[in-house]
Amino acid sequence: MHGGYGGMNILNGINMTLEADEVGVIVGPNGAGKSTMLKAVFGLLNVSQGEILLNGQPIQNLPPNQLVQRGMGFVPQEKNVFPSLSVQENLEMGAFLKPQNVKRMLAQVYEFFPPLYEKRRQPAGELSGGQRQMVAMGRALMAEPSLLLLDEPTAGLSPLYMNEIFDRVKQINAAGVGILMVEQNAKQALAIADKGFVLAAGQNRFTDTGAALLADPDVAKSFWAASPREKCVNELAFFINNVVIAGSVSGSIYAIGAIGVTLIFSIMRFAHFAHADMMTFGAFMVLLLTTLFPAAGASVGVPTAVLMLPLAMLLTAALGRRHRQDLL
């Protein structure tokens, strides 16, 4: 399939196949054409070349209202609820083509998303981001689709709600609804995917089962950038391991040496023996130089000791001398 906006193609020959009972996940870097692909499937932009088949029937370039009648639902990433309407009114809007099924479908949506029942009379605009996403998904389900398109359903959500949405996706699929979703949290999404499609520059780069893509080292090397949460955890672990632990251990060792030298100086009456200050400056120098020279400070080696021990000793001795002068 080829397609895009105006006369410019964003999709340059994408091929995808998804069975009726499968979860398909589209991932890839920014600008790869992921959301554009969903919009093309749902008739929101022009397909210039190729076919889109739903249950064997061509549907490319049909308007969205006809696609809903044929069994397709779409949940956009943003502005996907009516904020001034209540939760239940939002859901009822999704059943405008099948008003006779409102009561039955409401019961099913509330079964998928129990928190919505408790907030059914509350304006959707007052809900949290995760709850609004539940409303948007529930509204699309009110039309009883056989295929549900989700555009980044966990974008901007907390880890708690992100896991909740993935659980609901699996539950909806188990109820007989095919899922095709674009997702920024690639690893978590592929973990529940029957099929995964990795796009780059509007083309297929990798296509396989979700498990196979997760295990593929070429995919990992090319596309698995750490999430903001993973980056934060990694940076915190690096700080603890290379600064706090290494700095504390090294600082204690160097400070003991500085205490010994200063003790000698104090016996010779060149300095005042101040334990707290010596420990502080010894640790401070290790922390400072570990941060400036992480390769040297990551372990207690000879270059580190040669560099830090004299500095800790000198600063400690100098501070001790000042204390002695203050006492005098």
From TrEMBL:
<dbReference type="Pfam" id="PF02653">
    <property type="entry name" value="BPD_transp_2"/>
</dbReference>
<dbReference type="InterPro" id="IPR027417">
    <property type="entry name" value="P-loop_NTPase"/>
</dbReference>
<keyword id="KW-0067">ATP-binding</keyword>
<dbReference type="InterPro" id="IPR052156">
    <property type="entry name" value="BCAA_Transport_ATP-bd_LivF"/>
</dbReference>
<keyword id="KW-1003">Cell membrane</keyword>
<keyword id="KW-1133">Transmembrane helix</keyword>
<dbReference type="InterPro" id="IPR003593">
    <property type="entry name" value="AAA+_ATPase"/>
</dbReference>
<feature type="domain" description="ABC transporter">
    <location>
        <begin position="1"/>
        <end position="226"/>
    </location>
</feature>
<keyword id="KW-0029">Amino-acid transport</keyword>
<keyword id="KW-0812">Transmembrane</keyword>
<keyword id="KW-0813">Transport</keyword>
<protein>
    <recommendedName>
        <fullName>ABC transporter domain-containing protein</fullName>
    </recommendedName>
</protein>
<keyword id="KW-0472">Membrane</keyword>
<comment type="similarity">
    <text>Belongs to the ABC transporter superfamily.</text>
</comment>
<feature type="transmembrane region" description="Helical">
    <location>
        <begin position="302"/>
        <end position="320"/>
    </location>
</feature>
<dbReference type="GO" id="GO:0015807">
    <property type="term" value="P:L-amino acid transport"/>
</dbReference>
<dbReference type="Pfam" id="PF00005">
    <property type="entry name" value="ABC_tran"/>
</dbReference>
<feature type="transmembrane region" description="Helical">
    <location>
        <begin position="278"/>
        <end position="296"/>
    </location>
</feature>
<dbReference type="InterPro" id="IPR001851">
    <property type="entry name" value="ABC_transp_permease"/>
</dbReference>
<dbReference type="InterPro" id="IPR017871">
    <property type="entry name" value="ABC_transporter-like_CS"/>
</dbReference>
<keyword id="KW-0547">Nucleotide-binding</keyword>
<dbReference type="GO" id="GO:0005886">
    <property type="term" value="C:plasma membrane"/>
</dbReference>
<dbReference type="GO" id="GO:0005524">
    <property type="term" value="F:ATP binding"/>
</dbReference>
<dbReference type="InterPro" id="IPR003439">
    <property type="entry name" value="ABC_transporter-like_ATP-bd"/>
</dbReference>
<dbReference type="GO" id="GO:0016887">
    <property type="term" value="F:ATP hydrolysis activity"/>
</dbReference>
<dbReference type="GO" id="GO:0015658">
    <property type="term" value="F:branched-chain amino acid transmembrane transporter activity"/>
</dbReference>
<feature type="transmembrane region" description="Helical">
    <location>
        <begin position="236"/>
        <end position="266"/>
    </location>
</feature>
